[in-house]
Structures are given as C-alpha cells and as structure tokens.
Amino acid sequence: MRPELKNITVIKMVKALEKDGFRNTTKRGGHLVYRHSDGRRVVVAFHRSGDTFPVGTLSNIFKSTKWNENDLRRLGLLK
Asked: What is the pTM of this model?
C-alpha cells in the first residue's frame, strides 16, 4: 500500500465515497454502510471521525469500492 494512503481519515473517506455516488444507508454503532446504485456495498468502521484507518480496514474498503489508481486520484485520495 502506498504511504500516502495510510493517512486517510474517516471524514476524507466518507467524502470520497459520497463524491463517487455512494449513499449512506445504515449507521450502527461505529459502522456506516454505504451502497452504490450499481450494487457495490462498503462498510466503514471507525471510532472517531478524525481517526485514520488501520491498513487492513483500508484495504477492505478499497476492495469493496473497486477503485483503481485513477479513481483514487480523481477523488483526491492520491496526489
């Protein structure tokens, strides 16, 4: 995983998801469930909105979104 991806906060990830068309469908405790109109589903688990994600959690989020490097740049997660 690229070093700059390790510093993504919950707020930044949520904004990127919403910018890409994901909509929050459920909030349960520290888990937000986002769904896209094409059927993709992403669970964002967190403690505080300013926290950064552990590498494994971030990896699972990226697998669920199916974003590639161009998508990450377009959404402002990579420079």
From this structure: 0.90
Residues 6+ apart with CB under 8 A from 30: 45, 46, 47
Judge contact between 1 and 67, C-beta under 8 A: no
Rounded CA gap, 73 and 42, in Å?
19
- pLDDT tens-digit series, residues 44-73: 998 888 899 988 889 899 999 999 999 999
Q: Is the pLDDT of residue 33 over 90?
A: yes
User: Can you give the length of the chain in residues?
Assistant: 79
**What's the mean pLDDT when you consider all of the chain?**
91
Distance of alpha carbon 2 from its chain centroid, rounded?
15
What residue type is assigned to position 4 of the chain? E
Domains of the chain: 3-74 (3.30.920.30)
